């Protein structure tokens, strides 16, 4: 029910009475805006679409292993002259992870578990390859008749110790621990790349990645906006806007095939713009029925 307040005496007048003037002081009242009910949609927490194909696994694994072999051999070759601690593991991780992300997108790999496991495996392969190529480089310098196994090579390297900046020698067990940390860092980077791609919105019905569109900006309380979006009351988001406050926006993922007939994924994020650039912090991520797309596109919200 809409109500109007008399600007002269403060009397509250119901719009249902249809009065044009205040019954208490006779002041003329402004016409009340018509009341339109805003829809509330069923909202469920966002989850990546389950499922994986054999083709997707094979293509992603092939890309990952190829990148792992190349990056491992390249790092070993450059490392014969110079090796930058922490820089090389980061470069190897990205050098393997980014091609696997591309392969996962092409192969429509949308299983986070499968993609993550493939990423871990290829990250480990890259670091093992680096050490194996180091071993092969050393064998080319050995005197004729001298044989050395790969395990003996690792043992000798650990005894010599990894030397950090400032001539800090990590010793036998410290060197082994350092190698394990390098493996974990590389595998973690590749895992994050693969998992991030697989968790993107995907439509199993059309076998297509969803396309994202940004709506906004809005200004207001991030907590209030989060509660509205999670409750399916996204049509009311514009009502809570303020002149000042954090900037908010909605990132909506829609399948280009089924569009309103499928589901849409709505992500609310807080945006901060500084001298260093633009950063977005996710506040919530939910899935709506496709009919909510029309409300988001209209951008209109009126009070009940």
Helix/strand layout:
Blueprint: E1 3-5, E2 12-14, E3 44-45, H1 54-79, H2 87-106, H3 112-139, H4 150-160, E4 163-164, E5 168-169, H5 171-198, E6 202-203, E7 208-209, E8 211-219, H6 222-230, E9 247-254, E10 263-274, E11 277-289, H7 292-298
Antiparallel strand pairs: 1-2, 3-11, 4-5, 6-7, 8-9, 9-10, 10-11
Helix content: 40-55%
Largest sheet: 5 strands, antiparallel
Number of helices: 7
Radius of gyration: 30 Å
Spell the H/E element sequence.
Answer: EEEHHHHEEHEEEHEEEH
Number of strands: 11
The overall average pLDDT, rounded, is: 86
Query: Uncertain regions: pLDDT < 50 for 5+ in a row?
Result: 300-304
> What is the straight-line distance between the termini?
8 Å
Strand content: 15-25%
Strand order of the largest sheet: 3-11-10-9-8
**SSE class:** alpha+beta
Shape: elongated
Features:
7 helices; 5-stranded antiparallel sheet; elongated; two-stranded antiparallel sheet; 42% helix; 304 residues; alpha+beta
Could you characterize what this model shows?
By secondary structure, the protein is α+β, with helices and mostly antiparallel strands. It is built from seven helices and eleven strands. A five-stranded antiparallel β-sheet has the order 3-11-10-9-8, with helices on one face. A two-stranded antiparallel ribbon has the order 1-2. A hairpin with a 3-residue loop joins strand 4 and strand 5. Helix 1 (54-79) runs antiparallel to helix 2, helix 2 packs across helix 3 (112-139) and helix 4 crosses helix 5 (171-198). The chain is elongated and about 110 Å long. The model is unreliable at 300-304 (pLDDT under 50).
């Amino acid at each position: 029910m809409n109500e109007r307040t008399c600007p002269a005496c403060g009397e509250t007048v119901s719009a249902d009475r249809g009065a044009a003037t205040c019954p208490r002081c006779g002041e003329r009242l402004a016409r009340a805006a018509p009341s339109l009910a805003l829809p509330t949609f069923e909202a469920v927490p966002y989850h990546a679409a389950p499922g994986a194909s054999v083709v997707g696994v094979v293509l992603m694994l092939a890309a990952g292993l190829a990148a792992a072999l190349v990056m491992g051999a390249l790092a070993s070759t450059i490392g014969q002259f110079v090796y930058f601690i922490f820089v090389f593991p980061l470069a190897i991780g990205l050098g393997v992870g980014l091609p696997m992300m591309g392969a996962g997108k092409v192969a429509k790999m949308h299983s986070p578990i499968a993609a993550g496991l493939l990423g871990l495996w290829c990250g480990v392969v890259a670091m093992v390859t680096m050490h194996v190529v180091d071993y092969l480089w050393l064998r080319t310098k050995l005197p004729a008749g001298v044989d050395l196994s790969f395990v003996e090579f690792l043992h000798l390297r650990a005894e010599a110790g990894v030397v950090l900046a400032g001539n800090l020698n990590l010793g036998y067990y410290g060197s082994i621990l350092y190698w394990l940390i390098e493996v974990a860092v590389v595998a973690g980077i590749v895992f994050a790349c693969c998992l991030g791609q697989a968790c993107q919105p995907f439509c199993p019905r059309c076998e297509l990645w969803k396309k994202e569109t940004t709506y906004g900006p809005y200004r207001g309380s991030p907590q209030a906006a989060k509660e509205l979006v999670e409750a399916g009351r996204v049509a009311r988001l514009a009502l809570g806007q303020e002149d000042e406050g954090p900037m908010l926006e909605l990132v909506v993922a829609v399948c280009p095939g089924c569009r309103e007939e499928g589901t849409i994924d709505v992500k609310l994020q807080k945006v901060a713009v500084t001298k260093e650039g633009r950063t977005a912090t996710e506040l919530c991520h939910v899935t709506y029925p496709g009919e909510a797309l029309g409300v988001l596109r209209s951008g209109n919200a009126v009070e009940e």
